[in-house]
Amino acid sequence: MDHYDIAIIGAGLAGSLAAIALAREGHRVALVGPRPAIADGRTTALMDQSIEYLKKLDLWGEVEPLTAPLVAIRILDGTTRLFRAPPVNFRASEVGLDAFGYNIPNAPFLEILERHEAGLPTLERATAAATRFDIDGAEVRIGLGDDRSITADLVVGADGRRSAVREAAGIGVRTWSYPQAAIVLNFSHELPHQDVSTEFHTEGGPFTQVPLPGNRSSLVWVRKPRDAEETLTLAPDVLSRTIEDRMQSILGKVTTEGMPQSFPLSGLSARRFGKGRALLVGEAAHAFPPIGAQGLNLSLRDIMTLVDLIGRPTGSRLPADTGDRFDGRRRADILSRTASVDLLNRSLLSNFLPVQALRAAGLHLLSSAGPLRGLLMREGIHPGSALQAFKEGLREQIRRKSA
């Protein structure tokens, strides 16, 4: 029976990135999970902090040609409500960056990760599914679908919302649903996007265009489930015109590419993010609507914390309380991000006039107050930086008064 330092269950983007990061540190890693049956048509916007981590992992050189930079993000109120918000523009130059981040197609990104996995001598890729787990104080025993068994000091659940690792570790989960579905597709357009992402806030949810290389963009369109079903049945030319109209023709003529995909929207938060020898990353730990480019960026912070916590190999077994310590370090970040995305999404859905008024007032304040907008942008790029900036500003004021 082969023994590993860490077994990672789930070979999507989060699991693959975790496996590469830990193997580069010198740990013996097993990455377990079948390859996806259907190519993922979605894209992922990774922010500046995540891009820096891809550079550290020596991945960015291959990933960058697939991407388009996000130099600005604008929010437009596309509702017909009584209280409407003014346009809000966030520009990376306001916080001293060339771009907030980059938009990356998921399928070729995963192919690049698979090539890097194959080149790491301490990483073994098992394409069989994990079928059974025995987690105790001494080690983790994992049965695979090809009748093999492996053992590991730690098991990392990167196996999605229905995580078998989470269940085997006895970790509960809080789930909730929204009366929404997300339509995702890519499209070409007549006019250049100028590396600007535009998010229309509508009564059904956000309609978000994100740049791709050239005159192409990806779309995440959140709608009511029945509307989403009807949208999927539209002929390509009708769908293209519908998207152009929804965007108010700001990118000219639109032509959709391939078949759109649809995903029901729901939220999930594990009661714990680690326990004993089990740790949870990605959607095994947290999941929420595709708003504000938070999903994989939050997962990458899981991975950064995981690698930092485990450290480099010492020749000794990894501690049995690693999961508990990981839970303590990730709790504040995950819970705060989950709550903020949930609040924003529910504010879009609410028909309660005071809620609509508060949302409009908040966006108006962001539109007119440059320092507050800058603080929010820094927090989105580097979580915790807003609080740190506030503390430093307060200390500076105290120093000035003392002088």
UniProtKB/TrEMBL annotation:
One Pfam assignment: FAD_binding_3
Cofactors that this protein relies on: FAD
Coiled-coil stretches: none
GO biological process terms on file: ubiquinone biosynthetic process
Lineage: superkingdom: Bacteria
UniProt cross-references to Gene3D superfamilies, sorted A to Z: FAD/NAD(P)-binding domain
Pathway: Cofactor biosynthesis; ubiquinone biosynthesis
GO MF: FAD binding; monooxygenase activity; oxidoreductase activity, acting on paired donors, with incorporation or reduction of molecular oxygen
Keyword annotations of the record: FAD, Flavoprotein, Monooxygenase, Oxidoreductase
Ranges of residues in domain FAD-binding: 4-308
Family matches, as InterPro entries: FAD-bd, FAD/NAD-bd_sf, UbiH/COQ6, UbiH/COQ6_monooxygenase
Alphabetical list of NCBIfam families matching this protein: PRK07494.1 (NF005691), Ubi-OHases (TIGR01988)
Family designation: Belongs to the UbiH/COQ6 family.
Official protein name in the record: 2-octaprenyl-6-methoxyphenyl hydroxylase
